[in-house]
Amino acid sequence: MFGADLTSWIRDWAIANYADDFISGVPAVDTHPSWEFRSTVASVNEGNFPLGTEQIDSESITSVAISDGASAYLRFGVLPGAIGGGRIVARGAPVPPGFTLSILRTK
């Protein structure tokens, strides 16, 4: 039903949940073109878009718990001309095979 690459389909859907109707210029696969997702969800939630995001702490560890097939939406910024970086671990060890990280430029 979903084809050979369900993981990619779920990843694209998770990106679209954040990007649709909010960030211009994202690839069509990262949108919900017939929904205007943010506007639709906000209209039934008293004007609020309930997808939670968290600012990454630049001074200490930002911890996020997710399970298989789940998503976390983290925000960070890098000043013009600067270099950003970070490290991702799973309970202090390398992330498991199949872990996917997607970064979406919003500005």
What does this structure look like?
The chain is mainly alpha-helical. The chain is built from 2 helices and 2 strands. It has a two-stranded parallel sheet. The mean pLDDT is 84.
The quaternary organization reads as single chain
Q: Specify Rg, calculated over alpha carbons.
A: 16 Å
Shape: globular
As a percent range, the share of helical residues equals: 10-25%
- The structural class is mainly alpha
Order of helices and strands: HHEE
Number of strands: 2
Give the strand content.
under 5%
The largest beta-sheet arranges its strands as 1-2
Query: Which consecutive residue ranges, at least 5 long each, have pLDDT under 50?
Result: none
Distance between the termini: 36 Å
Q: What's the mean pLDDT score?
A: 84
How many separate helices? Answer: 2
Biggest β-sheet strands, sense, barrel: 2 strands, parallel
Short description:
It is built from two helices and two strands, in the order ααββ.
Please specify the SSE layout and strand pairing.
Blueprint lengths: L5 H14 L17 H7 L10 E2 L18 E2 L32
Parallel strand pairs: 1-2
Keywords summarizing the entry:
two-stranded parallel ribbon
